[in-house]
Amino acid sequence: MAATRDAVLEALKSIHVPGGGTDIVAAGVVRALDVSDGVVRFVLEVAAQEAEAYGTIKDAAEAAVKRVDGVAAVSIVMTAHAAKAPPPDLKPGRRAEPDGPQPVPGIARIIAVASGKGGVGKSTVAANLACALAAEGRRVGLLDADVYGPSQPRMLGVSGRPASPDGKTILPMRNHGVTMMSIGLMTNEDQAVVWRGPMLMGALQQMLTQVQWGALDVLIVDLPPGTGDVQLTLCQKAKIDGAVIVSTPQDVALLDARKGVDMFRQLNTPILGMIENMSTHICSQCGHEEHVFGHGGVVAEAAKMGVPLLAEIPLDLQIRLAADGGAPIVVTQPDGPQAQGFRHVARQLVEAGQA
Ligand SMILES: Nc1ncnc2c1ncn2[C@@H]1O[C@H](COP(=O)(O)OP(=O)(O)OP(=O)(O)O)[C@@H](O)[C@H]1O
To answer: Per the database record, which ranges form the MIP18 family-like domain (predicted)?
Structure first.
């Protein structure tokens, strides 16, 4: 007999919140319950200060659900949200508590790689930039926060689930000199993930603070395209030292890129510059240069917005084959012409003390 959602909820109602009283279903702690093909998934959304007490409750909930007829597997994700802030203490002579975005311990700088529109090559740029910075001798981390299409595991050639030996912290993956963590490694491949706001914030915060990044000179964050929850959460939680905006030269892409620049400006995040990707195409057969998506659009837009243009990256088959094959072009052909734009950006950022 297949397990039903009602039967699972009934089982969860037998588990009480810490200290007794009401049950976890009535308390609204059980979220995003999904029961399909005998697999039960849900989120326990709890206040940060109660997270420890919920450790045993999570175990009890798992055991109770496993006893339900037809349940083959149970996956519970616990997300901790901060409690409501206490009212401000207006007594004179008190030192102000830190407020707003905070630096992440051990990470000297954070650079966000963003794009207004999807598919413009933001992840390709992030992967190449991270590897190029590592080649410059920087200690580099790459956080793939593209919840809608995490592609860094494929681009950096890593797979498998990150280990968590102590159950509290997560060991990142490492390849090509870059320490990497991806939201894609925390979910099942091919699984369409519908993220709710609080789940997203929990996952992002976990990846920033619970991953053992070690000491880093710079953490590159590959953001999802657009101007949504992830961008806002990231800039509100962590001190972002700068954003790099990737765009193709087409008008539609530029329009969205402008929105991205505006958003970072509103969040007081410095814009380090724009990168024009798929700028020009040189035919590998005859050497003829074509401007597939137009040319020069980003340089003009960057000038209009008073933002530096960091590089123009060609549309090139080698770049795609390298990125999709698990070793970015700056790793496979560091001296080739296709890698030079990325390496130039890395050097510029290092020289400017930005990476
Ligand atoms: N300069 C380039 N030359 C050739 N192919 C490229 C180039 N840049 C990116 N690509 C290819 O285009 C595709 C999309 O690139 P990528 O995944 O980096 O885009 P994205 O902006 O991160 O997309 P998404 O919005 O889905 O996250 C990939 O297959 C990638 O290999």
So the answer is: 5-76
